[in-house]
Amino acid sequence: MAPLAASASSLPSAPPWVTPADARSAVNLLRSLARARRADLSHRALLLFRTLHASASPPPPRYSLPAALSAAAFLAALPEGRQLHALAAKLALLAPAHNTVVVANSLVHLYASCGRPGAALAVFRGVPDRHRSLVSWNTAVDALAGNGDHLAALDLFREMQRDRPDLAPDAYTLQSLLGACAAAGALSLGLYAHALLLRELGGHASSAAVSRDVLISNSLVDLYGKCGAVELARQVFDRMPERDLASWNAMVLALANHGRVRDSLDLFDRMTRVENVVPNAITFVAVLSACNHGGLVEEGRRYFAAMVSEYGIRPRIEHYGCMVDILARAGFIEEALDVVAGMNCRPDSIIWRSLLDACCKRNAGLELSEAMAKLALDVPDDAVSGVYVLLSRVYASAQRWNDVGMIRQLMSEEGFKKEPGFSSIEMDGSVHQFVAGDTSHPQSEEIYEKLDEIQQRLTSAGYKPDLSEAPMVADIDRTKGATLRLHSERLAISFGLLNATPGAPIRILKNLRVLKTISFQALLKLHLLKSL
């Protein structure tokens, strides 16, 4: 295995004890090093594997290779992992006739740890179906979910349920599934996973089971919170026999994110004053988010100060971002700038864009807005187009149309595009995604007909869209609001109205902010949804 030997030359020299004569002892040592989950010992595990493989009588690779792959996965050592993959292929360990599922599972885990879910899935697909164990499916589902491909993870779980009814999901399967459901807004599938969990864990009372219950219950609180089922999240939380800090953090944030601001802050007070749970930095992100959602400026100031003075927590960029947004949204732009000036870290573009957005909404003046835009553009990241969009709004508000045109031309010349927005909605266990102007859905014709019906009823009731937050001036047909009609949120709402059971809530998950013109609040205020 010369390439691996070369790549390992920069690692620490192998100590004398890495070459035990007995093959079984050597493999056991290799496994112990890999299982230690320490960088130095994982390096040594790779060195030991190299030494053993180069020896006159190496141990069977089907036993030693998984341990080496585990060490490479812990280090996220993709080059070494690929060399180990090549060795497995060379030794026919992945051939259908000689497939060693443990090696394949280890490769799936390796590629997942290295951020290569496509490669992980390819290895999984290469394993004959009859050879795939529950561990194989668990590892593949987790590889997709852990790397952000949540819909693919849900599809793979459904495939397992359909094609391998002999494999009953265990707690590990379902915990990965809960995370994917939370991220995708798949409430129905999450409820199904919850039911399976109750069956899986029911009747167990050992300390290990209780510990696992805490982790799983936290996942359930997170799931229901992200899917808008706050009451279900609270039920799970209230019934937990034991709670850790993550439990409190998840519940405080779930309440905050869904407008239950006072409940969120009351729960924080109970956590710290009654239960004597010491908050951490994540807790204060949730608390400050609650203040931001509720526009509670004074409370935000108080909690931000207490975080430092009472708990000794050094503010992070997320805390500063919340505090700046709280102040800027309330019009305290100068105070927000003072917070930025006192930061212990460099402001990111999100903070500057928050200030620029506040300048747009408060008509704070071109000079200040342009200064905020310049500062945001000076921070290297992928959000430059968002700054240009905001600056275009500033110029449009001031009726400086030449500057609006200049911004659009600059974006075109430099190849900038707005971040693509999508909205997703779960219906009957499947997640449907929509992008602006989407016509790919099988029900597209019906969706647009329903959308026209909604628009006509809103217009008849005197509703006028607020165009102040339209992304770019050219995105608006000022006579019909035609482009706003095509926004992904509206398409998802229309689909939901067509397919949801009457009276059932419609939950939309959005990767970007929701425009005022198409928010549920605007529709609900007109009391029109009941009759649609």
UniProtKB/TrEMBL annotation:
It comes from the Eukaryota. PPR repeats lie at residues 133-167, 213-247. Residues 462-516 form the DYW domain. Gene3D superfamilies: Tetratricopeptide repeat domain. Keywords: Repeat, Transit peptide. The keyword Protein transport does not apply. InterPro entries: DYW_dom, E2_motif, E_motif, PPR_At4g14850-like_plant, PPR_rpt, TPR-like_helical_dom_sf. The keyword Repeat applies. One of its GO terms (molecular function) is RNA binding. Pfam families: DYW_deaminase, E_motif, Eplus_motif, PPR, PPR_2. One of its GO terms (biological process) is RNA modification. NCBIfam families: PPR. This is DYW domain-containing protein. It comes from Miscanthus lutarioriparius.
